Amino acid sequence: MTGQTDISNLSIARKQLFAGNFQAAHAAAQQALKDDPQAVEAVLVMAAIAVEHGNGPGAEKLCSIAAQTGHRSCWLAVLEARVALMQQDQERARERALVAFELGTDDPHIANQLGVALSRTGRHAEAVQPFRTAVAGAAGNADYRYNLAVALQFSGDLADAEREFHALVAMQPDHAKGWGALVQLAHEPEPGWDAALSQLFDDSKDVESRLTIGHALARLAEERQDWDTSLKWLDRAKAPKAAEVAHDRSAAEAIADAAIAAGGAGSFADIPSGDERPIFIVGMPRSGTTLVERILTSHPNVRSVGELSDFAILLKQELRTPGQLVLEPALLQAASTAPDLTAVGKAYLQRLSQLAGDTPHFIDKMPFNAFFTPAILRALPGARVICLRRSPFDVLFANYRQLFATGFSYYSYAYDFGDTAHFVAGFERMANAFEASLPPARFLPVRYEEVIADQRGQTERLLAFCGLEWDDACMEFHRNAEPVATASAVQVRSPIYTSSVEKWRRYGEGSERAIDELGKYGIEA
After folding, report:
1. How far apart are CA 397 and CA 404, in angstroms?
2. Dmax (CA) of the chain
3. Selected residue with higher pLDDT from 153 and 3
4. Which phi and psi (to 5°) does residue 322 adopt?
5. Is 191 helix (H, G, I), strand (E, B) or coil?
6. Which residues, at least 6 apart from 5, have a Cβ–Cβ distance to it below 8 Å?
7. Strand 384-389 relative to strand 302-304: parallel, antiparallel, unpaired?
8. What is the dihedral of CA 440, 441, 445, 447, to 10 degrees?
9. Taking residues 270-294, what's their average pLDDT?
10. pLDDT at 98
11. Of 203, 341, 498, 503, which has the maximum CB count within 10 A?
């Protein structure tokens, strides 16, 4: 029986799925399969339910069943990309997301999932189109509009992004993430925003919402140059989240210790040899990594592949250390004692070939790859690593002020001022050790303040380190139209400015707190 009953059950299954009613969706999909065992879309509904419940193996099996029938659709490719992301297989996720993009869809819910898959695999420019389809087909869905606005911001369409954020908070005045993004992006904060957000903060009982709204209120206080009020909002907003994540300082110390030991114990080629395409830009978040990336990618022989976890994931897969975490002491220790890491380097280069294309050099700008620097230099004898250094006081405030993705445990330090200072001090200790132990032809420390003070000289130094000829475009990096998927997406579209240097001194009580906290680790102002 394949008539009206099957069509109705499939329709019900899809409707219930995208409404989040998974039990009803599963029942309708099962009935559709009973009516017609060839109803492939019913299998896709069940695969989507498995994905939503974190059941990667189940979702993978269901997608395979659908594919074996010869079925080919945007939805299947999107589901395959989502499964690959669950499995931390970035290469397959990118490939399936691009297949889905080529196939296209008019369904707003599938289009939104496609946009998310593209964004999570670094294809931010391509993500805009499916997000537009999602908003056009489900105009009342605030989260779809938020996703579109973020994609527009990353792609450099800042005016359109701001309009979308305005539309979002007008449609849903309590959308915390929308407010947080709008306040960061808006050129002119509106007079009523402080009162509205303060009330929203008081009314909300959700830790995540209060965290986001508190960051927005801190930003508004900064706009008024009321620095210590800004810091008080951050303290108030972050405290519940800090209690929830319970950052472990001893674990952070162990990671830094393991990285330092790896830098002192490894055998590294003194000069680049072999495949010299990879350039890694590393450092603390908010230390200038995006600025240096934009300078270098303005050169015609360099392109960025984004902030990738691929190297660390491949290292984990090769060395098979226990547990789910990638940034952890056991992996760093195993990498330092492994007799040969060339298999990791080979797999990395093979995986990056699709993203990098035939460009002479590509940049991988995952800041916390800094901890893997010794392993990178061993696994990729042609690779170069540029490590950004910035005043630890400015880095302390820049990280504490930043609302990082709350789903990543690596940023657990950023919810408490003291924890942030401790983590910054650990990074400083590691970076100092690397400067002393790693070959200067392959590891280049770059001071953010020196780039700001001497853009020409530091750009010449960066290009020479990478083996690149001078190109005037590097001095006009702000004209670079490539997407930027970091917190610096707005700033790096402006020329060099000096207002972020020594910014920490603008705080009154806050600067005293910083001197006290960093002073515990021997770091003086």
Report:
1. 13
2. 78
3. 153
4. -70, 160
5. coil
6. 35
7. unpaired
8. 120
9. 95
10. 96
11. 341
What are 18-67's pLDDT values in tens digits? 999 999 999 999 999 999 999 999 999 999 999 999 999 999 999 999 99
**pLDDT at res. 166:** 95
What's the rounded Cα separation, in Å, for the pair 381 and 98? 31
Q: Do 397 and 312 meet the contact criterion of CB atoms below 8 Å apart? A: no
Contacts (Cβ under 8 Å, ≥6 apart) of 19: none
Query: Which strand ranges, in their side-by-side order, compose the sheet holding 278-283?
Result: 302-304, 361-364, 278-283, 384-389, 443-447
Cα dihedral 483/484/485/486 (nearest 10): 180
Q: Tell me if 282 is assigned to some domain.
A: yes
Q: Report CA dihedral (44, 45, 47, 52) to the nearest 10 degrees.
A: 140
Mean pLDDT of the chain: 93
Asked whether residue 383 is assigned to any structural domain, the reply reads: yes
221: in domain: no
Report how many helices (DSSP H) and strands (DSSP E) the chain contains, helices first.
Answer: 25, 5
Domain of 276, in residue numbers? 249-468+497-519
Identify whether 143 is part of a domain.
Answer: no
What is the rounded CA–CA span in Å between residue 502 and residue 452? Answer: 12
How many Cα atoms occupy the beta-carbon half-sphere of 236 within 13 Å?
Answer: 16
Rounded Cα distance between 396 and 425, Å, is 9
Cα separation, 115 vs 48, in Å, equals 16
Q: How many other C-beta atoms lie within 10 A of the C-beta of residue 333?
A: 19
- Report the C-alpha gap between 241 and 231 in whole angstroms: 16
Q: Report d(CA 514, CA 525) in Å as an integer.
A: 9
- Which tokens sit at 317? 């897969």
What is the reported pTM? 0.85
DSSP for 431-465, written as a single string: HHHHHHHS-TTTEEEEEHHHHHH-HHHHHHHHHHH
How far apart (Å, rounded) are the C-alpha atoms in residues 520 and 253? 14
Q: Which residue has the tokens 């472990």?
A: 248
Query: At 452, which CATH number?
Result: 3.40.50.300
Number of domains within the chain: 1
More confident residue, 222 or 265: 222
212 half-sphere exposure, CB direction, 13 A CA radius? 18
Secondary structure element (H or E) that encloses residue 425, with its range: helix 417-437
* Tokens at 49, concatenated: 């339910």
Decide if 304 contacts 233 (C-beta within 8 A).
Answer: no
Rounded Cα–Cα distance for residues 77 and 430 (Å)? 42
Q: How far is CA 371 from CA 43, 149, 185, 283, in A?
A: 43, 33, 31, 9
Q: What is the pLDDT of residue 4?
A: 46
* 3-state SS class at 260: helix
